[in-house]
Amino acid sequence: MLTSLAKYIDYTNLSPAASKTDIEKLCAEARTHGFAAVCINPLWVRTAADALRNCPVAVCTVIGFPLGATPNIVKLFEAQRTLADGAKELDMVINVAALKAGDHEGIKGDIAPLAQAAHADDALLKVILEVALLSDEEIVRGCQWAEESGADFVKTSTGTLKGEGTGATVHTVELMRASVSPAIGVKAAGGIRDRETAEAMIAAGATRIGTSTLLA
User: Fold this and answer.
1) Which of 12, 99, 188, 198 could tie 206 with a disulfide, CB 3.0–4.6 Å?
2) What sections of the chain are H helices per DSSP?
3) CB 126 within 8 A of CB 89
4) 91, 110, 126, 152: which one is catalytic?
5) Is 216 inside a domain boundary?
6) Mean pLDDT for the chain?
7) What total of structural domains would you count in the chain?
8) Catalytic residue list contains 88
């Protein structure tokens, strides 16, 4: 059932209560189904890298998660440490306050150093916008500035906000896809719990799907 979707999926467990056994199970399932990546907290990057050695499934982790309200030097250290531990994809949360304030230089300073660190290690950088907190104009601006700053993907959401409208929507994915060049990927995450929703996001322009429940 998942074969046609597998290449799109970042199979995710970002629970603070996740154990080593949980992460190893996540990796085993990702290997079995041929998912694009596993997405896990920084604590578990080395565990995942060991579990997925000699396997095409990438190890993805989160940076500045879930708020993005971390000094850039801290985000950069977190990125460098997780890259050293074996991460090949970084999902960083943008400085939402700087984006809403229209602080172009602040956003560039937030993203560009992490993009440079990732690319120096043959890794990818995804920038999480947390779209539920943004207007359409701010989403467009965030996507464009992320691409200018060297990001490889823009991503809708952390998945940690709760309530209606806090995850990915078809409208948001379409807007993000239209706001960046074809060279940039779009990751839809937050509230994607079934095949129908995942396929709708892909039709809207998503090139990755972040989900913790689609396998079930």
Assistant:
1) 188
2) 20-33, 45-51, 72-85, 96-100, 104-120, 136-148, 170-179, 195-204
3) yes
4) 91
5) no
6) 96
7) 1
8) no
